[in-house]
Amino acid sequence: MSWISPPTKFIKFNVDGAMKVDGSAGGIGGTIRTPRCETLIFFYEPIDSNPPILAELLAIKFGITLFYSLKSRDKSRLVVESDCKTTLEWISNPSSCPTMFPSIVQSIVNVSDSRNMVFKFIPRSENVGANMLAKEGIGVVLFALDAVPELTRFSQAHVLSELRRYTALRSMEFHLNHRKMHQ
Protein backbone atom coordinates (compact mmCIF):
# COMPACT_ATOMS: atom_id res chain seq x y z
CA MET A 1 0.00 0.00 0.00
CA SER A 2 1.06 3.60 -0.47
CA TRP A 3 0.61 6.86 1.38
CA ILE A 4 -2.96 8.18 1.33
CA SER A 5 -3.43 11.94 1.39
CA PRO A 6 -5.47 13.61 4.15
CA PRO A 7 -8.65 15.59 3.48
CA THR A 8 -8.34 19.21 2.34
CA LYS A 9 -7.41 21.63 5.17
CA PHE A 10 -5.65 18.81 7.05
CA ILE A 11 -1.94 18.16 7.40
CA LYS A 12 -0.89 14.55 7.91
CA PHE A 13 1.78 13.47 10.35
CA ASN A 14 3.02 9.88 10.03
CA VAL A 15 5.02 8.82 13.06
CA ASP A 16 6.99 5.84 14.31
CA GLY A 17 9.38 4.80 17.04
CA ALA A 18 11.96 2.03 16.80
CA MET A 19 14.30 0.29 19.22
CA LYS A 20 17.38 -1.84 18.60
CA VAL A 21 16.75 -5.55 19.05
CA ASP A 22 18.80 -5.57 22.27
CA GLY A 23 16.89 -2.51 23.56
CA SER A 24 20.07 -0.48 24.05
CA ALA A 25 18.97 2.51 21.95
CA GLY A 26 16.29 3.66 19.62
CA GLY A 27 14.99 6.40 17.42
CA ILE A 28 11.88 8.33 16.54
CA GLY A 29 10.91 9.65 13.16
CA GLY A 30 8.12 11.10 11.15
CA THR A 31 6.92 13.10 8.19
CA ILE A 32 4.50 15.99 8.03
CA ARG A 33 2.82 16.34 4.61
CA THR A 34 0.09 18.35 2.91
CA PRO A 35 -2.94 16.88 1.08
CA ARG A 36 -0.93 17.35 -2.13
CA CYS A 37 1.74 15.01 -0.71
CA GLU A 38 4.21 17.88 -0.30
CA THR A 39 6.60 17.20 2.57
CA LEU A 40 6.74 20.10 4.99
CA ILE A 41 9.15 18.45 7.41
CA PHE A 42 10.66 15.12 8.16
CA PHE A 43 12.77 14.27 11.16
CA TYR A 44 14.57 11.55 12.99
CA GLU A 45 16.21 11.63 16.38
CA PRO A 46 17.95 9.15 18.66
CA ILE A 47 16.41 8.22 22.00
CA ASP A 48 17.78 6.39 25.00
CA SER A 49 17.01 2.84 25.93
CA ASN A 50 13.27 2.76 26.60
CA PRO A 51 10.35 0.41 26.12
CA PRO A 52 9.30 0.43 22.44
CA ILE A 53 5.88 1.81 23.36
CA LEU A 54 7.54 4.88 24.91
CA ALA A 55 9.40 5.42 21.63
CA GLU A 56 6.02 5.61 19.88
CA LEU A 57 4.69 8.12 22.43
CA LEU A 58 7.84 10.25 22.22
CA ALA A 59 7.56 10.33 18.41
CA ILE A 60 3.93 11.49 18.61
CA LYS A 61 4.74 14.20 21.14
CA PHE A 62 7.79 15.39 19.20
CA GLY A 63 5.86 15.59 15.93
CA ILE A 64 2.94 17.46 17.47
CA THR A 65 5.31 19.98 19.04
CA LEU A 66 7.08 20.38 15.72
CA PHE A 67 3.83 20.85 13.80
CA TYR A 68 2.59 23.59 16.12
CA SER A 69 5.86 25.46 15.72
CA LEU A 70 5.12 25.88 11.98
CA LYS A 71 3.31 28.94 10.70
CA SER A 72 1.29 26.79 8.26
CA ARG A 73 -0.43 25.14 11.23
CA ASP A 74 -2.74 28.17 11.61
CA LYS A 75 -4.82 27.08 8.62
CA SER A 76 -4.80 23.32 9.08
CA ARG A 77 -5.90 20.55 11.37
CA LEU A 78 -3.53 17.70 12.11
CA VAL A 79 -4.12 14.02 11.41
CA VAL A 80 -1.65 11.86 13.36
CA GLU A 81 -1.15 8.38 11.95
CA SER A 82 0.62 5.62 13.83
CA ASP A 83 1.02 1.89 13.38
CA CYS A 84 0.86 1.35 17.15
CA LYS A 85 -2.72 0.61 18.23
CA THR A 86 -1.83 0.64 21.92
CA THR A 87 -0.59 4.24 22.01
CA LEU A 88 -3.66 5.40 20.09
CA GLU A 89 -5.94 3.54 22.52
CA TRP A 90 -4.18 5.23 25.47
CA ILE A 91 -4.57 8.65 23.84
CA SER A 92 -8.27 8.08 23.21
CA ASN A 93 -8.77 6.65 26.73
CA PRO A 94 -6.00 7.89 29.08
CA SER A 95 -7.37 5.88 32.02
CA SER A 96 -6.33 2.70 30.15
CA CYS A 97 -2.68 3.81 30.19
CA PRO A 98 -0.41 1.94 32.64
CA THR A 99 1.15 3.86 35.51
CA MET A 100 4.50 4.13 33.72
CA PHE A 101 3.32 6.55 31.01
CA PRO A 102 0.48 8.79 32.23
CA SER A 103 2.37 12.10 32.07
CA ILE A 104 3.38 11.81 28.41
CA VAL A 105 -0.03 10.43 27.40
CA GLN A 106 -1.81 13.23 29.27
CA SER A 107 0.43 15.88 27.69
CA ILE A 108 -0.49 14.54 24.22
CA VAL A 109 -4.18 14.43 25.16
CA ASN A 110 -4.10 18.01 26.48
CA VAL A 111 -2.67 19.36 23.24
CA SER A 112 -4.86 17.19 21.01
CA ASP A 113 -8.07 18.15 22.83
CA SER A 114 -7.32 21.85 22.57
CA ARG A 115 -6.38 21.58 18.87
CA ASN A 116 -9.09 19.17 17.64
CA MET A 117 -6.57 16.65 16.26
CA VAL A 118 -7.46 13.35 14.66
CA PHE A 119 -5.55 10.17 15.54
CA LYS A 120 -5.68 7.22 13.19
CA PHE A 121 -4.26 3.70 13.16
CA ILE A 122 -2.61 2.61 9.92
CA PRO A 123 -0.87 -0.65 9.04
CA ARG A 124 2.92 -0.72 8.90
CA SER A 125 2.71 -1.03 5.10
CA GLU A 126 1.31 2.54 4.99
CA ASN A 127 3.86 3.87 7.48
CA VAL A 128 7.10 2.70 5.86
CA GLY A 129 8.60 6.19 5.51
CA ALA A 130 8.17 7.06 9.19
CA ASN A 131 9.48 3.63 10.18
CA MET A 132 12.61 4.10 8.07
CA LEU A 133 13.20 7.53 9.61
CA ALA A 134 12.79 6.13 13.14
CA LYS A 135 15.39 3.49 12.32
CA GLU A 136 17.71 6.22 11.11
CA GLY A 137 17.50 7.81 14.55
CA ILE A 138 21.20 8.51 14.80
CA GLY A 139 21.01 12.29 15.21
CA VAL A 140 18.62 15.22 15.07
CA VAL A 141 17.88 15.94 11.44
CA LEU A 142 15.28 18.40 10.29
CA PHE A 143 14.55 19.44 6.75
CA ALA A 144 12.00 22.17 6.11
CA LEU A 145 11.30 22.02 2.40
CA ASP A 146 10.08 24.92 0.28
CA ALA A 147 6.86 23.05 -0.56
CA VAL A 148 4.62 25.61 1.16
CA PRO A 149 5.07 29.41 0.96
CA GLU A 150 4.77 29.80 4.74
CA LEU A 151 7.87 27.68 5.20
CA THR A 152 9.98 29.85 2.93
CA ARG A 153 9.35 32.69 5.39
CA PHE A 154 9.89 30.45 8.40
CA SER A 155 13.35 30.46 9.88
CA GLN A 156 14.95 27.02 10.01
CA ALA A 157 17.12 28.39 12.83
CA HIS A 158 13.93 29.03 14.81
CA VAL A 159 12.72 25.46 14.21
CA LEU A 160 16.08 24.06 15.29
CA SER A 161 16.00 26.29 18.37
CA GLU A 162 12.53 24.97 19.24
CA LEU A 163 13.74 21.41 18.73
CA ARG A 164 16.65 21.97 21.08
CA ARG A 165 14.31 23.50 23.67
CA TYR A 166 11.86 20.61 23.29
CA THR A 167 14.66 18.03 23.56
CA ALA A 168 15.93 19.67 26.75
CA LEU A 169 12.41 19.75 28.23
CA ARG A 170 11.78 16.15 27.20
CA SER A 171 15.05 15.04 28.75
CA MET A 172 14.22 16.89 31.97
CA GLU A 173 10.71 15.35 32.01
CA PHE A 174 12.16 11.87 31.47
CA HIS A 175 14.62 12.28 34.33
CA LEU A 176 11.92 13.61 36.68
CA ASN A 177 9.58 10.73 35.80
CA HIS A 178 12.44 8.25 36.13
CA ARG A 179 13.27 9.64 39.57
CA LYS A 180 9.60 9.42 40.67
CA MET A 181 9.38 5.80 39.52
CA HIS A 182 12.40 4.83 41.65
CA GLN A 183 11.41 6.62 44.86
From TrEMBL:
Domain of life where this protein originates: Eukaryota
Residues annotated as domain RNase H type-1: 14-136
Coiled coil: none
InterPro entries with a match to the protein in the record: RNase_H-like, RNase_H-like_dom_plant, RNaseH-like_sf, RNaseH_domain, RNaseH_sf
Protein's UniProt name: RNase H type-1 domain-containing protein
